[in-house]
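ok so i was messing around last nite and threw this chain in just to see what happens. nothing serious, just curious
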Amino acid sequence: MNGSPEDMKLIIPKGCDNAPRKQIVIDLTVAILKQQNEIIKEYADESIIWFQLKDNKKIEGQCSFITTLQEENKNIIDCLEIYQVITHGKFASINGVISLASGTKIDFCDVYMFSNAARSGKVKEIKSYRLEHLN
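result:
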């Protein structure tokens, strides 16, 4: 999924700016959707594992992660609406809805595991849940 940053509307709930890790989760989610590789490299561990549970896929390593993003869906995103971002220790989750230009809406939830609880910890694992709704 891609499109320029100017094209995608971003709706974030109030209060997400009170914890640094919440902003990292939001920034990485946007970077994944927009294929912003420099941001992905900043936050994702070299040995990241990405589970795409709907498709029963496991992507291992930062290079494979970025390559998979480039090969997958090239849909234009109209809007990313984030409902909640929850963080605790080395875990975090984000959920909301992705609205595509085609009219399709995708409910999503990503569960993150960081390398440690420190702010400097990198994302070691993502479990992605997706539910697509056709209009």
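not much to say yet. The longest strand covers residues 77-88.
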